[in-house]
Every structure is written in structure tokens, then in C-alpha cells.
Write a structure and sequence with these properties.
The protein is of the alpha/beta class and 308 residues long. It is 36% helix and 15% strand. It is built from ten helices and ten strands. It has a five-stranded parallel sheet, covered by helices on one side. Strands 6-7-8-9-10 form a five-stranded mixed sheet, sandwiched between helices. Strand 7, helix 8 and strand 8 form a beta-alpha-beta unit. The two termini are 31 Å apart. The C terminus is likely disordered.
Length: 308
């Protein structure tokens, strides 16, 4: 099977448009927040869109953002909220792929949700295996139990999230029928590394402190790598909201069904309502705002996805 150029990115780190071939499809990458310093919609997303110009074939995403309305009349943009679609692959349909037409490059988010979307696009909008959409939703929402293949791929990606060769192996494994061989081996080896990371994560989870509604952990001085998503989830077993302080930033998270909307609370303009990242200097202000805020109204469904 002929594969398009495979590229990977995140809302905060997009590739140069000139490095992407021909007509480009963007999958599962949220718009950057509308406020910020060097990373914002105006300084990150908008210049990328302008550089791509007419080469943008489609942008498919499921993260809340106040700028979605600006693209409502452009059929290339298929945009939803996390409440509407818990994961992006379910938005990639045979009709959408057919309507979009031939493409040369797929730019996708670096997690399982993004890679499953890319594999599904290559397969004409069909799942790489029965239940793949449901697995992607379970992984991205942390609600329900994904199957063994998705669990292994998720662990591999979380262990080596900067490894683009691993991401390419995941795509080729999925579109190639999930057969044994070199791509399967690459995934298995990376998944084995997750076990070491998991042990470090459990140690860090013991260091949470509680400040009202918030469980906070500072990773300064931590030995070895850890899994931030699992660390956040561990904090949510101790308090309504968890905060991980790491590398000069605060990652703030709560279950989606809790009703918290940190994008609105901290006036960020866009992103995932239940998981945001802001500078660590605002820690005391953040905790005060969370503790002083009215009790949120719970939503139906649930998700605590990790879209940095």
C-alpha cells in the first residue's frame, strides 16, 4: 500500500508548512490557545494555516476552541468539541475521505488517537480493525477498557512519545493488517519500556499534597522518566483536580464528567476543557481560583485525554 508522507505535531509544536508535501490533511491537532506568549493561535496556528494556504485539504479535530466559529463556512474544517466526539478517529469517515480527494501528506497528533485517525484515513475511512474507534475513544477518554492491541500501542507511545520512527511503525502496523514482524517488534519493545516508567510514576504519586480541591505534585528532582497522564489520574483519586508541576509548567486536569472548564476559568480561549498547561509562576493563583470557583455541573460521559 502506498503511504502518504507521515508527519507529526501538536498544538504547541507544528512542523514548517514547507516541509509538508502537496495537499495536507491535519488530524487530531487542536488550535493553540487564543492567549499566550510565544505559543498562541495568532503566533502558532494562524501562521501555519497561512503558510499552507490552498494546500490544506482538511483539518479534522475534536477539541474545544472559540475560534472554531471562524471556520464554520470553510468545508475543509471538520471541527467538533470533546463532548461531541470523545476521539478523532470516529470523525474520519469514508464520505469525508472521498470528498476530500487525493492527498499527499497526513499531519497527525502524536498520541494513539491521532495515529489511529491517520491509519483510518489511509484505509479510506475504514477502521484498521473492528473496534478500533472504540479503542481510541477508551484510550483518549480514559473511560472504559481498550483492547490488548490498543493498550500495547498506547503504552509504547507514552514511553517513547518523541520517537517518530515508532509512530511510523504504528501506522504501518495498523494499515498492514497488524501482522507479526518488524513493526510489531518495535511497538512491543517500546511498550516494555513503559513498565519502568510506570514504576517511577507510582513513586511520584506518593508525593501529592492536598490544597483544598487540588492535589499537587512537584516533579523537580525526580529520577528517570514518568508518565504525566497516569500521574494526573493518580492525583484525581486524591482530590477533584490534579496538578503536575514539571519543567516550568503546570498541567491541570480533572475528569471530563466533573464539569470543570479550565479554558474558561483561566481565560485561555481554547484547548481541552479538562486539561490545560500554563506557566508554573501562577500556581498559587490557579489553586485559589479552583478553590473559589462554584461547584461545576457534572457532564454526561467522561474523558481525561492528554493533548499537549
Amino acid at each position: 500500500m502506498h503511504l502518504p508522507q507521515l508527519a507529526f505535531g501538536s498544538p504547541r509544536l507544528l512542523p514548517k508548512a514547507a516541509a509538508l508535501d502537496g495537499r495536507v490533511v491535519v488530524l487530531d491537532i487542536a488550535f493553540a490557545a487564543t492567549v499566550g506568549t510565544s505559543i498562541s493561535f495568532e503566533r502558532t496556528t494562524q501562521p501555519f494555516l497561512e503558510a499552507l494556504g490552498d494546500r490544506l485539504a482538511a483539518w479534522v479535530d475534536h477539541h474545544d476552541h472559540e475560534r472554531h466559529a471562524s471556520f464554520a463556512n470553510d468545508p475543509r474544517f471538520v471541527l467538533a468539541t470533546k463532548a461531541q466526539h470523545g476521539a478523532c478517529p470516529e470523525m474520519v469517515t469514508p464520505e469525508l475521505v472521498h470528498t476530500t480527494g487525493p492527498i499527499d501528506c497526513i499531519l497527525m497528533h502524536v498520541d494513539l488517537d491521532g495515529l489511529y485517525s491517520g491509519a483510518k484515513w489511509i484505509l479510506g475511512g475504514e477502521e484498521p480493525y473492528r473496534g478500533a474507534d472504540a479503542d481510541a475513544r477508551a484510550v483518549d477518554t480514559r473511560i472504559g477498557t481498550p483492547g490488548p492491541a490498543a493498550t500495547r500501542i498506547d503504552r509504547a507511545l507514552r514511553a517513547k512519545f518523541r520517537d517518530d520512527q515508532l509512530k511510523r511503525s504504528v501506522i504501518q502496523f495498523l494499515v498492514g493488517g497488524m501482522k507479526s514482524g518488524v513493526h510489531d517488534d518495535v511497538i512491543r519493545e517500546a511498550a516494555a519500556e513503559f513498565e519502568l516508567r510506570d514504576a517511577r510514576t507510582l513513586e511520584l504519586a506518593k508525593q501529592y499534597t492536598i490544597r483544598g480541591r487540588v492535589a499537587v505534585v512537584d516533579t523537580a528532582g525526580a529520577q528517570g522518566q514518568f508518565d504525566k497522564t497516569d500521574l494526573l489520574l493518580a492525583g484525581q483519586t486524591k482530590a477533584a483536580v490534579s496538578i503536575v508541576r514539571d519543567s516550568g509548567m503546570l498541567t491541570i486536569a480533572a475528569p471530563f464528567e466533573s464539569g470543570w472548564d479550565f479554558v474558561a476559568l483561566f481565560e485561555l480561549g481554547g484547548g481541552m476543557p479538562t486539561r490545560v498547561t500554563i506557566p508554573e509562576q501562577k500556581l498559587d493563583t490557579v489553586i485559589a481560583k479552583i478553590n473559589d470557583a462554584p461547584a461545576p455541573t457534572p457532564r454526561t460521559g467522561g474523558m481525561t485525554a492528554s493533548d499537549d
